[in-house]
Amino acid sequence: MNKITVGSVCSGIEAASVAWHGRGFEFEWFSEIAAFPSKLLHLKYPHIPNLGDLCDLPRQLQRGDIATPDLICGGTPCQAFSLAGWKKGLEDVRGNLTLKFVDILNANDARRQAQRLPPTLVFWENVEGVLRDNTNAFGCFLASLAGLDEEIKIRGKWPSAGVLQGPQRRIAWRVLDARHFGLAQQRRRLYLMAGGPAFAPEDILFETNPPRSPASLHHQPLVFEKDGHAIEVFRAYTDCLYSAYGTKWNGNAAAYNGSLFVSQNHRLRRFSPLECERLMGFPDNYTQIEGAKTTSRYQAVGNSWAVPVVQWLGERIAAHQQTPPPAPLLPLLPESARIELSPQLHLWNLSPATPVLQDGRSLNTSPTPCHPLMGDIRDVIDVNAEEKFYLTPVGCKGILRRKAERQLSMNPRLECVLHDIAATWSDEAIERISRRQSRGRFSQPSAIPTSAVTPTNETLPLWEE
Q1: What is the fold of 4-212+305-349?
Q2: Any idea where the domains of the chain sit in the sequence?
Q3: Which of 154, 30, 22, 141 minimizes the C-alpha distance to 83?
Q4: What is the pTM of this model?
């Protein structure tokens, strides 16, 4: 099978390289500027050049200084830009990165056309919220990919699945949830594929069977033993792992539903970086490189892609490039889903989970693949997590205080565990220690004298290095 060459933009820690290893893909270059991911790429993939700033790539492609890959993948920020801004010059760096991504694609296409090669394949991942962005960022991005001069506008939010046939590229997108791809993490992300007008990205992203019902998560125990340790989790899968988990561990919704906490031997802790790697599908200790800070590992993993989802899509890309399906889906898409934006521009809204094709088959465009695979939270747990990941009674009391202050709901079992741990120290000792650092309106100097009784096991939590 011919190799599919790849260029990676906003590479991060390269989930795509992990997911597509041994599956017919060959990476020719990366583009990453952040210090920790760049160091990891150098150590893990020393034979692949990291070209640095993506803004330099169009010029390098035009000059022929770098390879022109078959596929370019990336996950650029999509906020705060417009096509008008593209023409007049942008002030928002985030939006400029997405428009530069399109410039890279166009420059790569120009070089490939000169070499008589087919147009670039595009693989793009982003947060689901881009479909609801009130600046119509997704409509601007679609228009720039399709080769239009004006943004595409529709009523309401953009559909979670769709196809756009434009003059320059055909584009398809679908929201997929990593929880149905073997991970114990609910992580809904938007995946977009595009190529020349003759390319059929919908044949890769969509399936022609209804999704099967996955095994019920309720059958997975929340209390179990692992390697002689008593473990309790508060949900069978976690909330979406976020990049600030290393620093904002107690202010996110997951601090109240308990999905990103573990009770081990009746003590509460965060998931460790190793466990976060497992939640994303990376090999164990993938980010444990020399000099790695814990917060850097959390951020890099939380910013990355869910490896099994990207692997599933990569396998479908490789299969499609080798043997395209005999009956393309586009002519069979339901006429009721088509929106004629202009005589040359057609959009299909495929948000219903199982639209019916014109030949009577069901089309799966839902976040769940036809053959879902559920992850097991027990496989994530590492009983050797370091002491610094455990919450002290001060931390537990702080979460309970914020819960009461903001009148938030909380997982009842988590609330009991927090109360039990907080009760192991006196209120006076917790108050004295909690006021050592500025904590908003709770940061007034304490009236409790420093001679107050100190717990014999008093330690301050080491949340950062």
Answers
A1: Rossmann fold (3.40.50)
A2: 4-212+305-349, 218-298+376-442
A3: 141
A4: 0.90
